[in-house]
Amino acid sequence: xxxxxxxxxxxxxxxxxxxxxxxxxxxxPGDKSVSHRALMLGALAEGSSHIRGFLEGxxxxxxxxxxxxxxxxxxxxxxxxxxxxGVGLHGLRGTAAQLDCGNAGTGMRxxxxxxxxxxxxxxxxxxxxxxxxPMRRVTDPLERMGAKIDTQNGLPPLQVRxxxxxxxxxxxxxxxxxxxxxxxxxxxxxxxxxxxxIEPHPTRDYTERMLAAFGWxxxxxxxxxxxxxxxxxRATQVDVPADFSSAAFFLVAGSxxxxxxxxxxxxxxxxxxxxxxxxxxxxxxxxxVENERESGGEPVGDLVVRHAPxxxxxxPEALVPDMIDEFPALFVAATAAQGKTVVRGAAxxxxxxxxxxxxxxxGLRTLGAVIDETPDGATIHGGPLHGGTIESHGDHRIAMxxxxxxxxxxxxxxxxxxxNVATSFPGFIELANGCGFRLETA
Length: 442
Ligand code: S3P
Fold this sequence. Notes:
The protein is α+β, with helices and mostly antiparallel strands and about 450 residues long. About 30% of the residues lie in helices and about 25% in strands. Shikimate-3-phosphate binds near residues 33, 177 and 182.
């Protein structure tokens, strides 16, 4: 551990070695988006909500800690379980403490909406990476609703001033973002009149589905959602499916290592999340969905991936929002494919936990890949990878993607600064090595 300015940085480097084959069943942890939302709605509900399959990641634990500072009792009866003792819509208590969202954009942006309608002031802060991420996309429309939020030139910390009276608005999002949509809907719980959000492309609809499950009247369809203030949330049970975004690394790994077969049980298959499944199938991947069923109002299924020769594609732009977190993994699949893969319309990747277009292009080039980076995408040419040392830029998904690249590189792939994998995927190394990865930490 080293203190850098006001941030504590934990460094943990990995080395990923090539392997002959991957086999086994991989139980990936709970969905991050669903876990954040279950905590927040549980906190505002009347009664106690039981969450099963909760993601024990740093991001979701940070959200739980924020809610506890705001006076919500949250019990952890077992690993992956939380009981949230709701305080009701107006039961949160203000605190002078800073509310630390850690690395989590979802935590900060959704909490900004939730806090905008409270009677008290609050301050949301984040780690070094989150402190560089744009917040105007959420504070601008919240201010239109009557909120008062100060930023540092559009960046965190966010100073949310309480005691404002919010008014519902109709808002068309300039960029497709489930986080912004969700922030506005959460503020809308406290607003007079109707809050309506219209999206340029439909995004994940967990907030809408979960509000309905907690008994709040809401009208939604792909690309739009509308609710009005003044109702009550009633505690419920939330079953969190396994996170498709975590499964994604194994879908790519199983596809690119010859002879492999991996099974991923009970993965969330909300259609707004499964763009990578379609993209990989367009590239020739062999991925089957078995036991498709519904769990807690969400489609889930067991994914079975077998190695298959991949070929490059022009990625349909319409798939981009449905696989927004999966591009680092897709880029690795594209280097293993025959021919070139073209990605366009993905400029949002530049404002994730790192600039993911630059991080992937630079890292894969270090391993010998040929990539032309563009402002909103890249052309990735399939070809062999060699060993090398790459930077994760403290981004969990970049780190895990290069662990997958190491499976097929001719030499060892050393990945610097992987500690943040714990934000979304605690236990990645053990699960990965359990199915045949050769991943070492240093
Ligand atoms: C999320 C929405 C997406 C995604 C993030 C989780 C959510 O972000 O990248 O990992 O839970 O709402 P944007 O809203 O910025 O697209």
